[in-house]
Amino acid sequence: MLAQCTVVVPTIGRPSLDVLLDALAAAPGARPAELVVVDDRPTGKPLEPDRPGLPPVRVVRTGGGGPARARNLGWRTARTEWIAFLDDDVVTDPDWYERLAADLADLPDDVAGSQGRVRVPLPEDRRPTDWERGTAGLATSSWITADLAYRRSALTAVGGFDERFPRAFREDSDLALRVMDTGSRLVRGERWITHPARPADRWVSVRVQAGNADDVLMRRLHGPGWRDRADAALGRRPQHAAVTAAALAAVGLAAARRHRVALAAAAAWAAGTAEFAWRRIAPGPRDRAEVTTMLATSALIPPLATWHWLRGVVQHVGVPRWRGLPDLVLLDRDGTLVHDFPYNGDPEWVRPVDGAQEALDRLRARGVRVGVVSNQSGVARGLIIPDQVDACMKRLDELLGPFETVQVCPHGPDDGCACRKPAPGMVLAACAELGVDQARCVVIGDIGADVEAAAAAGARGILVPTPVTRREEVAAAPQRAASLPDAVDDVLAGLW
Predict the structure, then answer these.
(1) Chain region(s) in the chain for CATH 3.90.550.10
(2) Where is the composition biased (Basic and acidic residues) (predicted)?
(3) Which pTM does this prediction carry?
(4) CA dihedral 322, 478, 446, 436 (to 10 degrees)
(5) Are 469 and 454 in contact (CB under 8 A)?
């Protein structure tokens, strides 16, 4: 089973990554097919996580896109049936490999994911701090990707993690709800990890209030009952809103010289803030550092939580369901990737259009597979021979490759084949070769036959017109872009 599993670890280069890698290297038993470490730092010295005992290691970089994008890049570049996600600040048990294999073995087809079990050790010599108690909540959380294995097909079906969640908060719950919306189930396994309560500065509880905007996005996407489905408590947001309203009322009434009423509002704010602070102080160590931190942050959290919630209400209006990136982009050759020299058989005349290399590199950098589908009727017409087509394709690969699939139709328009565009044969063959659902495929070309082939195959077509593209083809195209880079921009923005 582990031979069909890839472990994906997104990281921002924390020292805790070394602790996790040491645990994975020291554990006995069979290894997964691969360990993909996703470096989500904008810059920095390349990571060197390889060490004896680990599975084959591959490092990929996002350039700093956040945890959702990092996980997406990890699973998109993997080719196994299962993807096991681990956070970079957890430690796997010594028998984790063995139990992962047992958890995934013989699962019914309707089970899309298996969650590991989490322990959060708390101090034994003192009461835990507010931050440590919050971290301890991970032990009972549902569908967190600190340790969660998904079928790759389930991730593909829903487009992976929604990258509109910019932080490590709610993006895993959102994915779980979308996967379950397909009719699949998620189960709990018997493997264990330890999630230490890592040290944090005194203002961490203030910064995490930005997650209130993500809660609004969850409601927009999944409706008012999302908390019950995701097993997510409401928390104190209503109380925070009331305390904030009391503070604003006190300021406004004082400015209006209504001092008695302003005093009453201020008293309500003070009482609400004191109650909140005490609820955080009482179960904690109650030392000077913790008490002063709780007093300061308890005054700041209610207005910040309310502000971020209101920001989310404004920001997340009319958001569509996440579609993610396509799994495969197929491109026409002549007129789209390279300048069109009719019936070209000379590799020297294979000349990329402006921006082609950068556009393809951007697709590959996001884990999108890239291929070519090309009509070459010059073979049927006797104008070129197959060896010349092969030589030109080899030159194309040298200039713009690698391509994961190359489909060529040598037939003429009157041959009645199933592969020549606008027939769907080459698109279907490319998808079948790579195991991609046609609905997760985009075809980019310069004439109507390209987008018609996409539609016939159940894929999405984008037309990039050139001077030879007929007006009626432009008018009929379901989606158009001014250039190949613009078409790729649309794909990467989810506009496909």
Answers:
(1) 2-200
(2) 41-51
(3) 0.93
(4) 40
(5) no
User: Mind spelling out the 3-state secondary structure of 259-276?
Assistant: HHHHHHHHHHHHHHHHHH
Q: 442 phi and psi, to 5 degrees?
A: -120, 135
> Quick one: pLDDT at residue 326?
97
pLDDT at 309: 98
* Angstrom distance (rounded) from CA 118 to CA 103: 15
CB atoms within 10 A of CB 101: 18
Per-chain mean pLDDT for the chain: 97
Instruction: Judge whether 165 and 68 are in contact, CB under 8 Å.
Output: yes
DSSP state at residue 127: P
Write down the residue that tokens 């008490």 correspond to.
291
Q: CATH 3.40.50.1000 spans which residues of the chain?
A: 328-492
CA distance 116 to 84: 10
CATH homologous superfamily for the domain 2-200: Spore Coat Polysaccharide Biosynthesis Protein SpsA; Chain A (3.90.550.10)
Q: From the candidates 89, 334, 446, 450, give the one annotated as an active-site residue.
A: 334
Confidence of residue 49 (pLDDT cuts 50, 70, 90): very high
Residue 433 in contact with residue 452, Cβ under 8 Å? no
Residue 139 phi, psi dihedral angles, 5° rounding: -65, -25
Q: CA-CA distance, 273 to 252, in Å (whole number)? A: 19
Using CA atoms, how far apart are residues 21 and 29, in angstroms rounded to an integer? 15
383-395 pLDDT, tens per residue?
999 999 999 999 9
* DSSP annotation string for 391-416: HHHHHHHHHH---SEEEEE---TTS-
Instruction: Please report, in angstroms and rounded to a whole number, the separation of the first and last CA atoms in the chain.
Output: 35
Q: Is 334 a catalytic residue?
A: yes
Amino acid 62: pLDDT: 95
Specify the fold of 328-492.
Answer: Rossmann fold (3.40.50)
Residue 92: strand pairing partners: 193
Q: Check 130, 162, 332, 450 and give the catalytic one.
A: 332
